[in-house]
Write a structure and sequence with these properties.
This protein is of the alpha/beta class. 22% of the residues lie in helices and 18% in strands. It is elongated.
């Protein structure tokens, strides 16, 4: 039961037992509990975890989710997308960027080229663990992030990460995220299937990105798709396209 409003019929207060964060889905109260002064009941949570996973990754013969499934991530009690990443409200809504209260992770929905929802990628705030956790059975090399937004475009930029793609789309530049440092043959065929005739490579400005640019150029050279490489200026203080929009990107 929520102590901040009259909650006599059904409990609406949810507490993350690992980090002490709480939220009431009825009155909207939210915050972080002082762990030293709050004792959670000593109960087994294994069955709860199993139930949560069953809800979050339901078994389906079609393996696609209805878009309504994303509503559970719409309430975002974190400034990660708006402040840390700097996305405006329209961008957050367009890409349905959210937050998973049960795991304390940011969420990025994954759609295929036809706009069918495949699940969400979880972005961890913990710098010691894996940064991204993709949906079960999701094969990175078989998809291009942002492909569902391509309509009549025949030229796109190829970038590495989802945030790079989001930043470019918000700047009205069609960009597809490889979600890796070079392209796969599945992704090459996907570009051909989409009718893409020309690409500009804007992978990360680091050693892996430079090597990936060379490998991607070689993979696309005989595909019938025109390839150009965009190189970062020496005075650009940025390692990827997402950082180019930051105020201090120019030395």
């Amino acid at each position: 039961m929520c102590p901040w409003h009259t909650d006599t019929s059904n409990g609406h207060l949810y507490i993350n037992s690992e980090n002490g964060k709480y939220i009431c889905f009825s009155c909207g109260a939210k915050g972080s509990l002082d762990r030293s002064g709050f004792k959670l009941p000593a109960i087994s949570t294994s069955h709860v975890r199993d139930r949560l996973m069953a809800v979050k990754e339901p078994k389906s013969e079609t393996k696609f989710y209805p878009d309504e499934w994303l509503t559970q991530f719409d309430f975002v009690p974190t400034d990660y997308w708006s402040v840390v990443r700097g996305y405006d409200a329209a961008t957050i809504a367009r890409f349905r960027l959210g937050y998973d209260f049960t795991t304390d992770r940011a969420t990025l929905p994954q759609w295929d080229v036809y706009g069918r929802l495949l699940g969400v990628t979880y972005r961890s705030f913990d710098k010691y663990g894996p940064k991204y956790l993709h949906p079960n059975g999701f094969k990175i090399g078989h998809h291009l992030y942002g492909a569902w937004l391509v309509t009549n475009q025949t030229q796109v930029a190829l970038v590495e990460g989802q945030p790079d793609s989001i930043t470019d789309w918000s700047a009205r530049t069609p960009a597809l995220g490889l979600m890796r440092s070079d392209i796969t043959q599945h992704q090459v065929k996907l570009l051909q299937h989409m009718g893409i005739r020309s690409v500009v490579l804007m992978l990360d400005n680091d050693e892996a990105g430079i090597k990936g640019t060379i490998r991607t150029y070689e993979s696309l050279r005989n595909s019938g798709i025109r390839v150009r490489a965009g190189w970062y200026r020496p005075y650009w203080n940025a390692k990827d396209p997402d950082e180019l929009r930051k105020p201090d990107c120019l030395r």
